[in-house]
Amino acid sequence: MSRVRAQLAWMVVLAALVAAWQAYVRLRGVPQYVLPAPTDVGRTLWDERGPLASAGGVTAREMLAGFALALGFGVAAAIALHASATVRRAVYPLLVASQSVPVVAIAPILVIYLGFGLAPKLVIVALVCFFPVTVAALDGFRSVDPEHVRVMRTLRASRTAIFRRVELPWALPSMFTGMRVAASYAAVAALFAEYAGSGSGLGDAMREGTAQYDAPLVGAAVVVLAGLALALFGAVTLIERLTIPWSRRVE
Amino acid sequence: MASAAPGGIDLEGVTKRFGDLVALEDVSLRVPADGVTGIVGPSGCGKSTLLEIVAGLEQPTAGTVSVEGASTPGARLERCALMPQSDLLLPWRDALGNASVALENAGGGRRRARAEAAPLFARLGLDGFERRRTWELSGGMRQRVAFARTLLAGKDVLLLDEPFGALDAITRAELQEWLTDALRVEPRTTVLVTHDVEEALLVCDRVAVMSARPGRVVLELDAGFGGGERAATIASPPFLEARRRALEALR
Ligand SMILES: Nc1ncnc2c1ncn2[C@@H]1O[C@H](COP(=O)(O)OP(=O)(O)OP(=O)(O)O)[C@@H](O)[C@H]1O
Ligand SMILES: [Mg+2]
Q1: What CATH number does residue A182 fall under?
Q2: pTM score, two decimals?
Q3: Three-class SS state of B85
Q4: Are B118 and B130 in contact (CB under 8 A)?
Q5: Position A39 in a domain
Q6: Interface touch B77/A147, C-beta < 8 Å
Q7: Which domain, by its residues, includes A117?
Q8: What is the tens place of the pLDDT at every residue in B155-180?
Q9: Residues with Cβ within 5 Å of ion ligand 2?
Q10: What number is the average pLDDT over the span B34-53?
Q11: Quick one: pLDDT at residue B5?
Q12: ipTM of predicted complex
């Protein structure tokens, strides 16, 4: 009951915002190509559901695959950085510095190198998601309570056993935090990638809509993109709850 | 020079400094093989530090330590199991999974490890709680799980840091008797740290009393009051005399 009420709060706020937007557009007579009313966006969502769904499918695939790549490489990188102080000293500062290079800037270069297919999009999404995953996983490994490691060492644990039974589980909550951040970046990254050069996806639909002053179409694409971002975020949160139910119980 | 004793633990002039802080000063102590030696002392006198040094997790600043004739940290670590003062259970493992972790570390496989740990688990009054999460256990149960975990490491030397600290008086007495019996059946070289003089006298063969920081051994007592009827033992003149001497040394 209280859970329903907690969910009710944001729905009411959202509904109020949408209603205010609708009222503003209608009462002030704002032209549709400047700011479409929510009802216009809604109508386009319905009328263009076929093209929007296939564009959304393309973008979703890019997001998911790029995210998965970032997860794999990010966790592997964090393990390497954690395992060797030398690697950490040699690579970590560069990794942090690399974040000052805006992905917007390198997206066109990647398109030149990798063509207009799926590859540059995967790389761009993965590049954007890689950093939060790596940093969070490394933080997780570095925050392991040394006392736990010491006790495990007296309990016949090899280096691998300590990693498997203490360090990795210990780092999981932090990794999930990084994954949630990465999940919320993935949509924007995919959009950038599509803007940089593509014949499909939501980014393409938005570019098309902008070129034709079709603001409702742009709005509809934004809604689909937001839906994808939320879905990925929600999936990560759900998997987190299922895999580490203990994390909300400790400290 | 420490003599190459056939078993047991030898500490010779052990000093431990943490920066300016002298935690242990010139501690010499012999723990006979298969005996139970108690260490009592005020808080902060270095009891936990002493156990960590014996276990090979810390190195003394000066002096020598040998466990069953072995003096390198690695060799000491191989021979000792440490039950830490705070239980340090792993929240991602259930109760039995925590108790059996050393068996898994040794490469027994999860299922076999659990099966092997189950009888001891039951003897400690934990049957029915195998699958409980650690946060569902009472403080006393957590301590018993940690105790089982230490025993199941199968080491010759047990280092118990306040093993019964969080237990109520009744469970505490029960477990003291249980430990005495268990060690009689299957003797292990045991060091028991406690703040409770009575517990030390009841469970141990010998008791070393330490002074406040910097910790040093100020009195060694023969104990061995366990095994008889508890109420009668506690009221007996030799017990009271030993207790008086220990308390006096502590003051
Ligand atoms: N890793 C460390 N670094 C610095 N100081 C330490 C470290 N470990 C212990 N000490 C200090 O050494 C002293 C002895 O600590 P220790 O934990 O061995 O005492 P203790 O006798 O076990 O106390 P208690 O009965 O409260 O558990 C304390 O003053 C403590 O602050
Ligand atoms: Mg202590």
Answers
A1: 1.10.3720.10
A2: 0.86
A3: coil
A4: yes
A5: no
A6: no
A7: 59-245
A8: 999 999 998 877 788 888 888 888 88
A9: B 48, 85
A10: 92
A11: 46
A12: 0.87
